[in-house]
Amino acid sequence: MSRTEQNGAGRRRPPTIHDVAREAGVSRGTVSRVLNGGHNVSPAALEAVQSAIRRTGYTVNRHARSLITGRSDSVAFLLTEPQERFFEDPNFNVLLRGCTTALAAHDIPLLLMIAGTEAERRRNMRYIAGHVDGVLLVSSHSGDPVAAQLHEAGVPLVACGKPLGQGSRVSYVAADDRNGARDMVRFLHESGRRRIATVTGPLDTPGGVDRLAGYRETLAECGLPVDEALIVPGDYSRAGGEAAAALLLERAPDVDAVFVASDLMAQGVLSTLERAGRRVPQDIAVGGFDDSPAALGARPELTTVRQPWDRISAEMVRVLLAQIGGEDPAAVILPTELVHRDSA
Amino acid sequence: MSRTEQNGAGRRRPPTIHDVAREAGVSRGTVSRVLNGGHNVSPAALEAVQSAIRRTGYTVNRHARSLITGRSDSVAFLLTEPQERFFEDPNFNVLLRGCTTALAAHDIPLLLMIAGTEAERRRNMRYIAGHVDGVLLVSSHSGDPVAAQLHEAGVPLVACGKPLGQGSRVSYVAADDRNGARDMVRFLHESGRRRIATVTGPLDTPGGVDRLAGYRETLAECGLPVDEALIVPGDYSRAGGEAAAALLLERAPDVDAVFVASDLMAQGVLSTLERAGRRVPQDIAVGGFDDSPAALGARPELTTVRQPWDRISAEMVRVLLAQIGGEDPAAVILPTELVHRDSA
DNA sequence: TATGGCGCTGTGAGCGTTCACAGTAGAGAA
DNA sequence: TTCTCTACTGTGAACGCTCACAGCGCCATA
């Protein structure tokens, strides 16, 4: 039975570039040229090929293409956070969707990889080297060696958030954490608060560090003393926020405002304050960070700092594709926006 | 310059099966056999090849393999929901992570595809046919033609939730919505509630339909009349829950319990009740569905029905891989669990 | 001793592309 | 007219792997 005849039963073999060439009355080479931009192809041939492609329903076999070009035309979204944060943090949704959509516009599929355990990490690293053109990395903890490893292996890479402790050769896209924190603290000060505390993020993350820095600077600018008792460490989780608020109330009962480094922690802070009988915002103003869905779910709704996640994802993809195309690594910092609601 | 020498500058060409064969002193065929299960290979050769693989750092070129086998050894996670639901619903996180991890255990990468717009849908369909071994489909709305199209194209497919209106030949994995609803309503009845309302999910989703059915049945079993004024349609969103609760209070001010078909809607219901001055659970008991993070974020914390998302994702992957392996489509229904907290 | 079978091994072909190269025709310049 | 250049086209050779097949030696059986 000849190859073109095996159509009757089972799944029909998909058309190849050969079929298109025959149908269009040209050679493989011409079809290939049409597929790759159509340069040096006569108008007549171009039209014939495009029509043949439509008639046959041809789609390029990406495996064959990748085999020879060495490119895979796919990109990995690599998450090395421990799973808790991934579960809880709604920002990942936005980021992931944004990246997927931005890549789709270039016809590039996104491979989702999660490296929670060491075994997963090794498996993913093995896969990435040679099977993926670039990596979108979400991994804020500085202890994480993944960024360095990938960079060393020569894999194009863009991190979400500034990778702490890496050399300057790794691309990243981040919100302007420091100025976001400044905006919030300045706002709290302007609304008349004078004992402004903060619940920080983990201080091995750039977000944690920069938001705290913004807090300190702004206090100084406003002429307020920086009281270390008002600085309570947190871990970005709701439970962490609850505990931090309890500690804060114990250390500084006279506190009248808290800048919390994430909305999720702010939810926890709110529930501790409620149990302690403090009214928000009358007794204590609470400011969050992220403008995640958690901000709307909180009672009262959170005044917070919006991170431009849609722009972050778009920029990550843009920078990554540029880098795959041979450009140098780049750092992009995007402005935040203060969102006024009920908690401050 | 010979091929093996171009190591000095730039990225070194990765080792091929040839390199491994030479290193191990055997032929390509033997290496290939080792790679594919090691049948009909002598212990000595097996050991030599494995050692050579380790020494050279060889990993199989999946493009070359796919080109000849016709398999891609990858799976798509296709989301056809409108984006709002994806953003808001924390269950997707759990589902997505579960699927990714379960697939990773089989060394199969997950391609994330989002078909919000018609153009995206077409692009994804074109990609899927021929570039992916199977599809994990998240698309509960019955108007969605994707399941039918994929099924017709002969692509192995597992849906999350029973696809409404499809023929019975599509595999799916779902929580036992009906019995989950029954458990909740029975519990409300047993705690002494007599005017039990419900806020439904969208009635073009199987979850919406089945949870409502469970509600109706249980009321009847408990000897309570089914009062249509107590049945308010919802859309799974927080705002929808707020509106539904307002309507409910207007239609039936004497209501003393609400079974809400999702936690997110239940959050909305709680905030309307709070504004209306109704105490939960004293005046009105509120029961949710999902046991999503929203249940813990609510005040009071939600009594709800847990959907076993971790098991759902594991089963989806299991069923899909079985189907890729040639087995028949299958339907899996997994039990839910009542979670007691403060709202009822 | 001949025969068959079995376990293991190597080899050639081919999967569907792209790429480099060679070749053709036609237009313009000499 | 002849030559050169340009625009276009076709062809063979890869890319790295798997598959089918043939061949080898060895043992058990006749």
Automatic annotation (TrEMBL), chains A, B:
<feature type="domain" description="HTH lacI-type">
    <location>
        <begin position="15"/>
        <end position="69"/>
    </location>
</feature>
<keyword id="KW-0805">Transcription regulation</keyword>
<dbReference type="Pfam" id="PF00356">
    <property type="entry name" value="LacI"/>
</dbReference>
<protein>
    <submittedName>
        <fullName>LacI family DNA-binding transcriptional regulator</fullName>
    </submittedName>
</protein>
<dbReference type="InterPro" id="IPR010982">
    <property type="entry name" value="Lambda_DNA-bd_dom_sf"/>
</dbReference>
<dbReference type="InterPro" id="IPR046335">
    <property type="entry name" value="LacI/GalR-like_sensor"/>
</dbReference>
<dbReference type="InterPro" id="IPR000843">
    <property type="entry name" value="HTH_LacI"/>
</dbReference>
<dbReference type="InterPro" id="IPR028082">
    <property type="entry name" value="Peripla_BP_I"/>
</dbReference>
<dbReference type="Pfam" id="PF13377">
    <property type="entry name" value="Peripla_BP_3"/>
</dbReference>
<keyword id="KW-0238">DNA-binding</keyword>
<keyword id="KW-0804">Transcription</keyword>
<dbReference type="GO" id="GO:0003677">
    <property type="term" value="F:DNA binding"/>
</dbReference>
